[in-house]
Hints:
Chain A is of the alpha/beta class. Chain A contains 20 helices and 7 strands. In chain A, the strands form 2 sheets. A 5-stranded parallel β-sheet of chain A has the order 2-3-4-1-5, with helices on both faces.
Amino acid sequence: xxxxxxxxxxxxxxxxxxxxxxxxxxxxxxxxxxxxxxxxxxxxxxxxxxxxxxxxxxxxxxxxxxxxxxxxxxxxxxxxxxxxxxxxxxxxxxxxxxxxxxxxxxxxxxxxxxxxxxxxxxxxxxxxxxxxxxxxxxxxxxxxxxxxxxxxxxxxxxxxxxxxxxxxxxxxxxxxxxxxxxxxxxxxxxxxxxxxxxxxxxxxxxxxxxxxxxxxxxxxxxxxxxxxxxxxxxxxxxxxxxxxxxxxxxxxxxxxxxxxxxxxxxxxxxxxxxxxxxxxxxxxxxxxxxxxxxxxxxxxxxxxxxxxxxxxxxxxxxxxxxxxxxxxxxxxxxxxxxxxxxxxxxxxxxxxxxxxxxxxxxxxxxxxxxxxxxxxxxxxxxxxxxxxxxxxxxxxxxxxxxxxxxxxxxxxxxxxxxxxxxxxxxxxxxxxxxxx
Amino acid sequence: xxxxxxxxxxxxxxxxxxxxxxxxxxxxxxxxxxxxxxxxxxxxxxxxxxxxxxxxxxxxxxxxxxxxxxxxxxxxxxxxxxxxxxxxxxxxxxxxxxxxxxxxxxxxxxxxxxxxxxxxxxxxxxxxxxxxxxxxxxxxxxxxxxxxxxxxxxxxxxxxxxxxxxxxxxxxxxxxxxxxxxxxxxxxxxxxxxxxxxxxxxxxxxxxxxxxxxxxxxxxxxxxxxxxxxxxxxxxxxxxxxxxxxxxxxxxxxxxxxxxxxxxxxxxxxxxxxxxxxxxxxxxxxxxxxxxxxxxxxxxxxxxxxxxxxxxxxxxxxxxxxxxxxxxxxxxxxxxxxxxxxxxxxxxxxxxxxxxxxxxxxxxxxxxxxxxxxxxxxxxxxxxxxxxxxxxxxxxxxxxxxxxxxxxxxxxxxxxxxxxxxxxxxxxxxxxxxxxxxxxxxxxxxxxxxxxxxxxxxxxxxxxxxxxxxxxxxxxxxxxxxxxxxxxxxxxxxxxxxxxxxxxxxxxxxxxxxxxxxxxxxxxxxxxxxxxxxxxxxxxxxxxxxxxxxxxxxxxxxxxxxxxxxxxxxxxxxxxxxxxxxxxxxxxxxxxxxxxxxxxxxxxxxxxxxxxxxxxxxxxxxxxxxxxxxxxxxxxxxxxxxxxxxxxxxxxxxxxxxxxxxxxxxxxxxxxxxxxxxxxxxxxxxxxxxxxxxxxxxxxxxxxxxxxx
Lengths: 436, 709
C-alpha cells in the first residue's frame, strides 16, 4: 500500500472536521468567505445600534453559524470588548432559563474583569460567587493552595457544577429568580468597570441558544424577554430558526425592538422553482464557495473536479453535509487502498462517491421507520412546503421536526421559508420509486 | 472459497471502514457510531478490531455508561482519571463505549427514561466532549441509534461516521441490574437577611464609577442602572435620604430614556416604594406600589411572577399598617398566582404559604396559622432538604407560634433546632443566629427564666453590633429587648438608659415619624408608669398614641394597645372615669381588628374587668373575667401563664366577695401553673401564693366564725 497516499487521505480526513472552527489558526487555515454578507449585515447593525441594543441571530444546523459568530467576535474586537461564549459550555441545556443565561453573563464578565486586573467590588463577587455556600468554600480553599489563579478556579468550578449538578442549577434558579434586577445591576456594574478600564463598551455574544428545544425557547424569548434584555449592554443572542417562525416569539422580539433577526440560511444552489430541474445551472457564487472549502481541506490531485462539484450539489447547501460527504469519500479511499494495495492513484472519483453516497443513504434509510415519514418526504419534495400529515392521528409537526432535525428536510429562505428534501434522501426516494 | 453472502461482505467492508476511520483520527475527537443488532456479534467485532489495533500499539480502552447517571461526558471523564494512557497524548488511543445499547427506554418512576437522559446529555454536553482528543466508538442498537438521531440532533450532526453491522439473531441482551433512582435534591433560595457589611455595595466606590462613566459616556444607558444600584447600596446602610436621591435619579433617567411605560420604570417605582416602606412612610409607599403593580400588569400581563411579588409587597404594606383584612386577599392572590405559574411544589409557594400563616398568626388566628406553618415547613423540607436556612426560618416561625400560644415546652426545642441549624449552615456570626438567640431569650423571659434570658439578650445584642454596626435598627431592637427584660425584673434603673438609647437610635436611623419610634416612646412610658412616674409617663403615652394614629391610622392593633396603655396609666392614678372610656375604646377596636378570638382581646377584657373590680363593680367585672378566662383557655390552652393570671384574677374577685369555696380551686390551679411555667421565684407566682394564702386564711376564719356560733 502506498503509505504516503494513505497519509494524505488521513490528513484530509482529519481536516474534514465536523466540529465548528473555533481555534484561530483553524479559522485562518480553512476560512472561506461563506456567510460573509450575513456577518457584515449583523456587524453593521451592531455598530449603528443604540448602546444597549439587542440582536438575534438564527442559523441552521451545520451551516457554519458558530464559525461565523467567532469571526464576528474577532471583527468587533477593535471597537468593543467582546465576551463570546457558548451557553453549552456553561450550563446543561435542558435546564437553560433566562435566569441562568443572565447568571452566565455575570459569571463570564466577572471572570473577564479579573483577567483585566480590575478591582472588582466585593459585593459583586459575593453575589456572583458567594450564593452557594459549598462552592464558595471550595473556591476559597482551592485558591488557598495558590496554584491556580482565582479566575481559572471559579469559572471551572462553577461551570462544572452548572453542567453536572441539577441541584446546583435549581438553587441558582431559586436564588436569583427573585432578584433578577439585582443580578442585572451587577452585570451593568461589571460592564461599566470593563468599559472604564478598556475604554471600549462591552459586547456579549452568546452561541448555542439556538440548540434549545422550542418550549424552553418560548419560555425565554416570549415570556421573559424583558428580563433577558434588561442589561444595559449590547448582546447578540442566538435562537433556533424554528422559533422565529413562531408569531408569538417574533411578536415578543419585535416589541423589544428587534426588528428582524439575522438569519444565516442554508446556502442555495438553485432557486425554488428550479430546484428539481436537471437542466438548471447552479448559482455560481454559492458553488464556488463550497468548492473552495473542499480545496482548502483536500490536497490537489486527490479529488476529481467533477466529483468535487457533485459532492457540493449533494450537500444541499449545508456546509457540514459537504464536509460529511467528502469525509466519507476519504474513508472509502482509505479502504480502497487497503483492499487493493497494488492499485495506484486512488482518488475521490465517481465510483468512490457512489459508494460513499450509498453509505450515507443507508444511514438515512435506517432512520425512516414509518411510512408516514416517507409520505411526508414525498410531500415536501413535491410542494416545497412544510409537511402536513395526511394521517390525523400522527403528530405531523413533530414528524416534520424530526425530518428537519436529522437534516432529511432542508430549510431555505427567500422572503418566506421553503423546503426541499436532502439530495441524498431524494436518491433514496427515487430508489424506492416514491418519486420519479 | 465459499461465496459469502451480501450481508457478510457488507459487514466486512464496514469493519474496514471503521478501522480506517479510527486510524485516521488518533489524537483527535472523532465520534464513530457503530450499530449492531446482535450483542454477541458486537462483542466479536470489538475483539476483532481491538486485536488488530493493539498489535499496532494502540491503547484500547472500554468505557461503560453508568446507568444511574447516563452521561457520556461523565463516563469519559471518570475513565480518563483512571487510565493514564488516555491522559498522555503520545500513545494512540481508542475508546469503545459500552452500555449505551443497554439503556432502557421505559420510564419507571422517574420522569425520564435512561435512554432519554443519555440522549439529553449527549445533546447538551457535546461541546464539552471536545476536550477528549481521541476517537470514540459508540455501540448502539438500530432503534437506539434512530432515537438518538431524533432526540440529540446536534450530537448526531457531529457523527464522524456510521457503521452498521447486521446479524439478525434476536437481540438477546436482557439488562438485569436494577435501576438506581437519582435523588432529586433541589436547593432553595437564601432568604433576605440583613446583609453582612462585606456583602454590601460600597456607595462611595459606586458613585465614583458613576462619575467616571458620566465623564466618558454621559448618555450611557448603564447610568440609570447604576443609580438604582446606588440607591440599593445606601438603603442597605440605612442611609435612607441618600437612597431616595439615587432612586429618584434612576427613575428620572428611566422615564427620560424609556418613557413612562416600561418595566424598568415599574422596578424603579417599586424600589422607591420599598424605601419608603422601610422608612415607615407607608402613606407614600402605597400609591407607588400600586402604580408599579398596575404598570407591571399592563406591560407583562396578569400572569407574571413580578405580579406575584408586587401583590406580596402590597400585602406586606397592609399588614404592617395593621390592615389585616386587606392584606389577606392580597397574600392569597399572590399565593394562587405562584401556584399557577410555578406549580405546587416550589419554594416560593412555600414562602407564600408562610406569609399567609404569619398574617393569621398576627391576627391571633392560631388554629388557622398552625397548619399553614406546618405545610410550609414540610414543603420546604421536601424541596430543600433538612439543612437549609429557609427551613430554619420556617422552624423558627412555628416556634414563634407556639410561643404566642404559650406552648413554651413545644417552642423551646424548635427554637433550639432553628438556632443550631442556622449556626451550622451560616456559622456563628450571622444575623439569623442573632435573631434565633433573641427569640430564645424572649421565650425564657416569658417563662420568667430571667437568669437564662439575660446572657442571651446580651449575646444577641453584641453579635448584632459586631455584624451590623452600632447604627442599625436590629441593634436598636436588641437594646430595647434587653431593657424590657430589666424592667420585668424590676431593674428600672438599668432599663431606663437602654430604653432611651434605643429610642434615640431609632429616631436617628428611622426619623421621628416611624412606628418603631412610637413603640420606643411607648416602652419608655411603660417604664415610667411602673416606676410610678405618672406625670412623666402621660405625655409620652399621648405622644406615642398620636404618632401611631398618624402613621398607622386609627384602626391598628398597636393603636389599640396604645389606648390600652394610656387607660392603664389613668387606672394606676385612680383616674377611673378617664380610664374607662379608653379601655372600652381599646377593647372595641381590638375586637373589630382582631376578631373576638384573640389573646389581646382577652387582655383587654381582663383590663376592663380589673377596672370594674377596683371600683367595686363586681357584678360587671365577673362576666368579663370569665370571658377572658374562657377565651384564654381556648386560644392558649390550659397551660399558659396568662391563663394562670385569669384564674388568679377571678379567684381574687370571688375571694373579695367572700366566695372562698369558689376561689380556692382557682387559686390552686393558678399556683400550680405559675410554679410550673414560671417557677417558684417569679413575681407572679409569689403574688398568687400570697393571695392563695389569704384566701385560705379567709376560709378558715369563716369556718371558725361559723363554728363559734
